[in-house]
């Protein structure tokens, strides 16, 4: 079984300081959180840029500052979001791709997101995929429901995404696929052979789905974007604390954890 890639989604666009006082907001805070994740055993960070007051932003300049500050501290994989906040326009959301990161998220469909709608039309998806290809950025195909896998495979047929594919199953969002064991098995068996996948369980689904991924040969995402608690009613101290738990559990199961460079090899980054 290949080594385990652990991603930390360190802040997201929705989580607030009021909910989680240790949430990293500024470029310096995000870079420090990424470094702590790296030291704990993480190989990738998924980033949502924020203004200093916490407002989500897709500004290329802010992402560029974050990217630079992280690179000064460690060689963890920097993966910006093209999802942004639900109210960002497509032309705003694509901005971090222009920085030519190794990888960026690419959501493959529209879904309900609690009381909101996360809009990803076919035009959006194809434009984002084309822009990533033009800038040498590997997409992480974000899957919130089974139908989004179909949309991802359409991108392959149109020559906008090249295999091997990497999927991120985001599970447990109200309005999208739930996070029961059967749901992960269903998604994992619905992608092309030779693909890799990560699971991001939202809230209470984070830990059980992470354990399943470790056993099934998938990869794991944790972090304050998805879950702010360490245990029921107990806030996590940091993103690194959530990563360290996955490292410990993986070792208990005999699954080695990938370094950033080993993760790059598994994901085919730079090829």
Assign a percent range to the helix content: 25-40%
State the distance separating the first and last CA atoms.
22 Å
How confident overall, as mean pLDDT?
97
User: Mind telling me the CATH superfamily name?
Assistant: Aldolase class I
Using the 3D structure, state the CATH architecture: Alpha-Beta Barrel
Please give the domain count.
1
List the helices and strands and how they pair.
Elements: E1 6-9, H1 27-40, E2 44-47, H2 60-73, E3 77-80, H3 90-93, E4 103-107, E5 111-113, E6 116-118, H4 122-134, E7 138-143, H5 147-157, E8 166-171, H6 181-188, E9 196-201, H7 206-216, E10 219-222, E11 229-231, E12 234-235, H8 239-252, H9 260-267
Parallel strand pairs: 1-2, 1-10, 2-3, 4-7, 7-8, 8-9, 9-10
Antiparallel strand pairs: 5-6, 11-12
Helix pairs in contact: 1-2, 1-8
Question: Describe it for me?
Answer:
The protein has a single domain (6-267), classed as Alpha-Beta Barrel (TIM Barrel), CATH 3.20.20.70. Helices cover 36% and strands 18% of the residues. The mean pLDDT is 97. It is globular and about 45 Å long. With 271 residues, the protein is α/β, with parallel strands linked by helices. The longest helix has 14 residues, at 27-40. Helix 1 (27-40) crosses helix 2 (60-73) and helix 1 (27-40) packs parallel to helix 8. The strands form three sheets. Strands 3-2-1-10-9-8-7-4 form an eight-stranded parallel sheet, sandwiched between helices. A two-stranded antiparallel ribbon has the order 5-6. A two-stranded antiparallel sheet has the order 11-12. It has helices at 27-40, 60-73, 90-93, 122-134, 147-157, 181-188, 206-216, 239-252, 260-267; strands at residues 6-9, 44-47, 77-80, 103-107, 111-113, 116-118, 138-143, 166-171, 196-201, 219-222, 229-231, 234-235.
